[in-house]
Write a structure and sequence with these properties.
The protein has one domain: Porin (Beta Barrel), CATH 2.40.160. The protein contains 4 helices and 22 strands. A 16-stranded antiparallel beta barrel has the order 2-6-7-8-9-10-11-12-13-14-15-17-18-20-21-22. The chain is globular, with a radius of gyration of 21 Å. Keywords: Signal. InterPro entries: Porin_dom_sf (IPR023614).
Length: 392
C-alpha cells in the first residue's frame, strides 16, 4: 500500500452552499473525512454605500464588493466516534469589505440516544454550529451561489446565526420534529457577552414534512427566537459607518416561517420573519430608547434545466418599522429613524460541470437597498470548489 492509499483517498463530492454554510457534513465510515471549500466572486455595479441595519444600529449590511473579492476558504474534518456519535470541526477565512478574518467556523459533537418510554431517539448537538431555525441558515440554497445573503437574513440574523450552544431534537413522528437550541449569546443578534456573563439566545422550532406523492414534497418550519442583547459598538462585531461609541442592551423576539416545495425539476422556497425589539442605547452622557417592529422575507424559484444547468430567481424585501425617543443629538448621530423598504431582485444561471464545482452568473437589481434611495443593476461571476479526502 503506497502513501496515497495509506493517508488519504481523494473523493469528489457535491458543491457546498453559499454564505450560510449550514450543518450538513459527510461522515466517513472509518477514519477522518477532510474537506476543502473555496468560494470567490467577481462583481461590478455595486454601490460604495451600503444599507444600514436597524439592529445593531448603524451596522452595514453585507453587500458584495466591487471587483475580485478575496477567496473564502474553509477547511473541515469529520470523524465518526461510534455508531451513534460524530465530531466535526471547521476553520474558515472570510473576506468582508476588503478585510479577511480567520475563525473557527464550527466545532461540535453530534449524536442520538434513546430515552426509556420513547420510540424514537433524541438527537443532541453540542459546540459551535449554525442554527437550524430557518432553511437558509441551516443549509443555504442548493447548488446556488449568491454574492450576499437575502436581505431578511442580513437585517434579522446578522447574515447567519451561529454560536456556541446546545441543540436537542425530539422526533414526534417520522415527518415531524420539535427542537430547542440554546446559545451562549456571542452571536450576531446578542452582540457580545457583557462582563463575561451569558446573554442567552434561545430558539424553539417545529419542522414538518408532507409527502404530496405525485405533486412532490412540501417542507414547513415555524420558529420562535428570543435573545438578550449586549452590544458594544467597535467591539469587532460591527462594520459600522459610525464612529460613535455606544452600548445597546435589549430584548429581541422573532417569529420565522419557512416553506419549501420540491417537484420534479422545480423548487419554490420562501421565508418570512417578523421582529419585536425593545432596546436601550447609551453613551457616556446620552440615552436613547429604540423599538423595532420590522418584517420581511424572500421568495425563490429554481428550475433544473438538466444535470449541469439550473436557472433561479429570488426577490427579497424588508420593511423597517422602528421608533426612537431620547436625546436628539444621539438620534441625529445614529441617523435615526431608519425608514426604508429595501428590495433586491437576483437572477442566477448555474453551471455544474463536475460534482465538485459550480459556477454561477448573477444579475441583480437593487432598490432603496443602500443609502440615498439608490437603485440600479449589478452582477458578476461566482465560483465554488470543493475537494474531499478520507484518511484510512
Amino acid at each position: 500500500m503506497n502513501n496515497t492509499q495509506l493517508y488519504g483517498l481523494l473523493l469528489l463530492s457535491l458543491p457546498v452552499l453559499s454564505h450560510a454554510h449550514g450543518n450538513k457534513v459527510n461522515t466517513p465510515d472509518t477514519g477522518i473525512g477532510l474537506e476543502l471549500e473555496i468560494e470567490q466572486h467577481l462583481m461590478a455595479g455595486v454601490p460604495d454605500k451600503r444599507y444600514l441595519l436597524l439592529t445593531p444600529v448603524m451596522d452595514a449590511a453585507e453587500a458584495p464588493d466591487n471587483g475580485i473579492s478575496s477567496a473564502d476558504v474553509k477547511f473541515s474534518a469529520t470523524s465518526a466516534i461510534d455508531n451513534n456519535w460524530l465530531a466535526h470541526a471547521a476553520i474558515s477565512n472570510h473576506s468582508h469589505g476588503g478585510d479577511s478574518e480567520l475563525e473557527v467556523d464550527q466545532g461540535f459533537i453530534q449524536g442520538h440516544f434513546n430515552v426509556s418510554g420513547t420510540e424514537r431517539p433524541i438527537t443532541v448537538k453540542l459546540g459551535r454550529f449554525y442554527s437550524s431555525a430557518a432553511f437558509y441558515n441551516q443549509s443555504g440554497f442548493n447548488e446556488l451561489i449568491a454574492p450576499s445573503a437575502p436581505l431578511v437574513y442580513q437585517a434579522f440574523m446578522g447574515g447567519e446565526l451561529r454560536d456556541d450552544g446546545i441543540q436537542l431534537q425530539f422526533p414526534i413522528s417520522e415527518d415531524t420534529r420539535v427542537a430547542l437550541e440554546v446559545f451562549s449569546g456571542e452571536n450576531t443578534l446578542a452582540g457580545q457577552r457583557d462582563n463575561d456573563q451569558f446573554s442567552l439566545t434561545q430558539v424553539v422550532y417545529l419542522d414538518h414534512g408532507i409527502n404530496l406523492e405525485k405533486s412532490g414534497h412540501l417542507d414547513l418550519k415555524i420558529a420562535l427566537l428570543n435573545s438578550d442583547q449586549n452590544y458594544q459598538s467597535g467591539d469587532g462585531h460591527s462594520h459600522s459607518n459610525s464612529d460613535l461609541s455606544y452600548q445597546l442592551k435589549g430584548d429581541l423576539q422573532q417569529l420565522m416561517l419557512s416553506a419549501a416545495w420540491n417537484w420534479q425539476q422545480w423548487t419554490i422556497q420562501t421565508e418570512v420573519f417578523k421582529r419585536w425589539q425593545d432596546a436601550r442605547i447609551t453613551t457616556s452622557d446620552q440615552l436613547l430608547q429604540l423599538d423595532d417592529n420590522s418584517y420581511g422575507g424572500y421568495g425563490l424559484i429554481r428550475y433544473q434545466l438538466n444535470k449541469e444547468w439550473a436557472l433561479a430567481g429570488r426577490y427579497d424585501q424588508i420593511t423597517t418599522d422602528g421608533t426612537s425617543s431620547g436625546h436628539q443629538s444621539l438620534i441625529s448621530a445614529l441617523a435615526l429613524p431608519i425608514d426604508k423598504t429595501p428590495a433586491n431582485l437576483l437572477f442566477s444561471a448555474s453551471w455544474t460541470p463536475a460534482s465538485n464545482q459550480v459556477w454561477t452568473l448573477n444579475a441583480g437589481y437593487y432598490d432603496d437597498q443602500w443609502q440615498n434611495k439608490d437603485r440600479g443593476w449589478y452582477g458578476g461571476l461566482s465560483y465554488q470548489l470543493r475537494f474531499s479526502a478520507e484518511t484510512l
